[in-house]
């Protein structure tokens, strides 16, 4: 499966989940007067940094693990066959020799 098809399928699935959950979230949100305000809440910039930094950290960890496995593994290297020994006869002379049937054949 091509990467474009995978990305399209994942994006469609995520959009379907978000679209299905939006009405449910909108109907259950309390009014702002009774909503408790947390003084230690993260700002928008901190949330963005957390998501981008967390994603980057996951990529780096996976890359390091893959590099470690690749460095540790022994890759298959085929043996180079020895050079073919030179034949005892001259192959070009053999190809120039007339066939036995050609000697006694009648000429047209």
Task: Characterize the overall form.
Answer: elongated
The helical percent reads: 55-70%
Strand content: under 5%
- What Rg, in angstroms, do the CA atoms define? 37 Å
End-to-end C-alpha gap: 66 Å
Give the helix/strand class: mainly alpha
Which key terms come to mind for this protein?
0% strand; 108 residues
Fold and architecture overview:
- By secondary structure, the chain is an all-alpha fold.
- It has 4 helices and no strands.
- It is elongated and about 115 Å long.
- The mean pLDDT is about 80.
- It comes from Aeromicrobium choanae.
- This is Secreted protein.
- Keywords: Membrane, Signal, Transmembrane, Transmembrane helix.
Summarize the model shown.
This protein has 108 residues and is an all-alpha fold.
Helix and strand layout, with pairings?
Elements: H1 3-28, H2 44-72, H3 91-96, H4 100-104
């Amino acid at each position: 499966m091509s990467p474009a098809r995978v990305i399209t399928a994942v994006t469609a699935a995520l959009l379907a989940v978000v679209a299905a959950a939006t009405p449910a979230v909108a109907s259950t949100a309390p009014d702002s007067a009774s909503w408790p305000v947390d003084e230690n809440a993260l700002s928008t910039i901190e949330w963005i940094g957390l998501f981008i930094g967390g994603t980057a950290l996951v990529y780096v960890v996976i890359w390091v693990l893959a590099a470690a496995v690749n460095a540790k593994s022994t890759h298959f290297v085929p043996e180079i066959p020895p050079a073919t020994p030179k034949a005892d006869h001259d192959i070009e002379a053999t190809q120039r020799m007339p066939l036995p049937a050609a000697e006694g054949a009648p000429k047209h």
